[in-house]
Write a structure and sequence with these properties.
Structural class: mainly beta
Order of helices and strands: EEEEEEEEEEEEEE
Distance between the termini: 22 Å
Shape: globular
Strand content: over 45%
Number of helices: 0
Largest sheet: 6 strands, antiparallel
Radius of gyration: 19 Å
Length: 225
C-alpha cells in the first residue's frame, strides 16, 4: 500500500476559515490605488531547485508566478511538483507575493501487500470536496495527537482498495477504505489535517465509495469521476 507518513503535526494547524474563504481583503491606502488580498489556496508547487518555488498552479487552474521565489524547507527535490496549501498576497497590478506553504499528503489508492495489516483507527471527517479543476478529491480531517516523553511515533494515512467491480462498459467501481494508523500516538488534542486523493488514478465514468471510520461512526461517501 502507498502509505503517506505525516510531516510534523504543526505543519497542519490552520485557521479554519481559510478552508471556506480563499482570499480575504487586507486593503490599504498606499496612494496608488492598489489593494492587497491575503489568500490561502490548495495548489501544486513546482520547484526549480531543491526548496525553491517560483510558481504554482491553484486548484482553480490559476497560474501564479511569484514576485520572488518562495523557499519551502520540506520541498527537497528540484524540478518536482508538490501538493500544498499555499498562503500568498494577491496584489492588483503586481505579481503575487508568496508567504508560506504547508505540505498536503497525496494519497494514491492502492492494495495492501500480502501480510500487511489493515488499520482503521478513528478520526473525524470534517468535509470532502473535489477541486475546481477536477484533479483532486480533498479531505479535511480532525486527528487526535499528542506528545509523550520517550515516545517517537508518527501516524500514517492511506487509501486502500478493498474491491474493484468491472461495470461492463469500460468503467469500474472502486470500494475504498481510509487507512489510519494511530501507532500509539497519544490522543491529547485535535489537529486539522488536509489530504488529497488524485483523481488521475480513475478513468472518466468510474465511481468510488470511500469508507472512513470516525469517532462518530462509519462514514460512507460516493464519488463519480
Amino acid at each position: 500500500m502507498n502509505k503517506i507518513r505525516f510531516y510534523p503535526f504543526y505543519l497542519f494547524i490552520f485557521l479554519s476559515f481559510y478552508l471556506f474563504i480563499s482570499c480575504t481583503h487586507d486593503t490599504y491606502d498606499s496612494g496608488d490605488g492598489e489593494y492587497s488580498y491575503l489568500c490561502a489556496e490548495f495548489a501544486e508547487l513546482k520547484t526549480t531547485t531543491a526548496k525553491l518555488v517560483p510558481e504554482a498552479l491553484t486548484d482553480d487552474n490559476e497560474q501564479l508566478t511569484f514576485s520572488h521565489p518562495l523557499t519551502v524547507s520540506w520541498a527537497e527535490k528540484g524540478d518536482t511538483v508538490y501538493r500544498a496549501l499555499l498562503y500568498y498576497n494577491k496584489v492588483e497590478n503586481r505579481s503575487p507575493e508568496p508567504i508560506s506553504a504547508f505540505a498536503v499528503p497525496v494519497l494514491k489508492p492502492s492494495s495492501l501487500k500480502d501480510g500487511e495489516m489493515m488499520h482503521t483507527d478513528p478520526l473525524t471527517l470534517e468535509s470532502s470536496w473535489t477541486s475546481a479543476n477536477g484533479k483532486y478529491l480533498n479531505l479535511s480531517l480532525l486527528v487526535k495527537t499528542g506528545v509523550e516523553e520517550g515516545l517517537d511515533a508518527r501516524q500514517t494515512l492511506g487509501v486502500v482498495i478493498s474491491n474493484v467491480t468491472d461495470l461492463g462498459d469500460g468503467t469500474h467501481h472502486y470500494d475504498l477504505v481510509f487507512y489510519h494508523h494511530q501507532n500509539g500516538v497519544p490522543e491529547y488534542y485535535t489537529t486539522r489535517v488536509y489530504s488529497s486523493i488524485p483523481t488521475s488514478f480513475f478513468k472518466s465514468g468510474d465511481t468510488a465509495t470511500l469508507t472512513i471510520h470516525t469517532y462518530q461512526g462509519t462514514v460512507v461517501k460516493d464519488y463519480q469521476f
